[in-house]
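Researcher: I'm comparing several assemblies side by side, and this is the next one on my list. It has 633 residues spread over two chains. Same procedure as the others: predict the full complex and return the structure.
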Amino acid sequence: MPKRITQDIEPVAGNGLLHRRLFLKRGAAALGAGSLGLMTAARAKELPLWMQAPGRALSGYGSRSRFEGHVQRRPLSAKGTDGAGGSWTPLESLEGMITPNPLHFERHHSGIPAIDPHRHRLLIHGMVERELFFDMDSLLRYPMVSRTQFIECSGNSYLAGLPAEPVNATCGALHGLVACSEWTGVPLSVLLDEAGVDPGAAWILAEGADAAAVSRSVPLAKAMDDALLAIYQNGERLRPDNGYPLRLFLPGYEGNMSVKWLRRIKLTATPAMTRDETAKYSDLMPDGRALLFTFPMEVKSVITSPSPGLELAGPGLYQISGMAWSGLGRIARVQVSADRGATWAEAALSGPVLDKAVTRFRMAWRWDGSPSVIMSRAADETGAVQPPREALIAAKGRKFTYHYNGIQAWRIGSDGQAGNVYA
Amino acid sequence: MSRREHATEPQGWVYASPSSRGIRNRRASLVAAIGMALAIGAAAGANPDQATELPEGPDLGVEAAPEEVAEWDISIQPNGEGLPPGSGTAVGGAGLYALHCLSCQGAEGKGQLNDVLAGGHGTLDGPAPRKTVGSFWPYATTVFDYIRRTMPYQQPQSLSDEQVYALTAYLLFLNGIIGENDVMDARALSAVQMPNRDHFILAYPLFEDD
């Protein structure tokens, strides 16, 4: 049986002495197999335990292997709270383009509300012909679309490049406020059309049903273009930590605008200038002025393997794997360098390469065991190119916090360990 | 409507100024906002390889009564629209602050567990900026709105409008923006000129010019 026998055995004395029934159990199992005469003792020794007895029962909702239990988000909450902060996706442990729902990053401003979907309603009001309520049962009857797209917190990656000295942490701890899912829901334009938008309206104010009642102003143009009222995430209903039962999803825009637990949309002529869009998510420039309404998350890439914490076992052939995304469109190309940016080569993009989705890139690398610096840079279909850290800082200083998308370099030591390096 | 640029190849590896990026994020014409058919076109154009044609909705929205809307609508515009009746002063707010805010925000807004609310004036252009209500926030109406919808952290939306006015006044007073006895109400609050008001650069409208 795969169950770890030692975990049920309490120590009986110091320094790790365990109860003798540990041996009794093992003995009984071996005796059982032998006495039934199904296999020789020698064969039982070779055959994996999990082939010697039926596996565990069927279940209603799946769980991962217990050997993968160490793959965890990294939660970090504001002092004095346990739900106002973020949890970072462990990018270094994942592959492909889709983020598993339980590992999708979190960013909450006042915890995760426990919303009863039967009591949740969405109000659309303000500059419309008809002010309307929609309950979840109604929304589920509307025409839906599915889109595979990323969402990224605007503060993602700032720790990777803005501190004066490089912070050494895993790829996920530095860049893990990004995730990519298939989102399914009702285009917001359908509901706005039903309400009848006043020609003078130019913005919507979206508000969540959490304790912070998070609110953000969104251009009406975006709302009518590709905004989604998401109900499903990777095929199942949204997770509570991603806005159950209803969230706004704004492809390519900074994550906090995709208001979770959506309960109210007000059409207005001008933005409300909420705290989160003025005092929080604005980008401070070197001269002390701040950029307001920097919506799209721009082109970025990062090598997830090798990366800090994933030790290279020794010289030889490795696959460099990473992810690239842009809030402006498709990824056009990714290049990888293994010599600190002196030379670059085109990485293979793993399809499908979708609009505003994470694109996985891969590249083979024969590591000779010498200290190396590897990095990736991406370009999107609009021609935007991921900037080197120095270029970004030269243009925007080191205080802007949000929308950092500089090139990430990892140094690989001769011991096979990776670390964050400014290169 | 939703014009998309189909440059499949970036034009070499020339690094554009980061602050100018994003300008290509086009804005759908407002005309599109009116017509369902046009809106469908916009949605389809945004995701040519992922789009599904939209049939029209089943019209299941239920008309909201004006009084219901009034109860739900807690949003406030910088011109003061949405501010409720009531008033308060910093003198009244000081006691409320001690009761509801002090443990996280510290005495006189100087910071404890969480954000510093006062001071920081003149630090934004230096190497260690301190963004506070007084040094950074562009609109006083936002202070009222944020306190009312979010605070106190353990019991949001539990304060009366009078109390929120008083706390707002106290924070403005701590930052030297109003006097201790200045009465803050809908009219007075929307007239407050925050010190950092003119130091924001609107990035979004720049995106509209195509």
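Model: For your comparison table: Residues 67-191 of chain B form a domain with the Cytochrome Bc1 Complex; Chain D, domain 2 fold (CATH 1.10.760.10).
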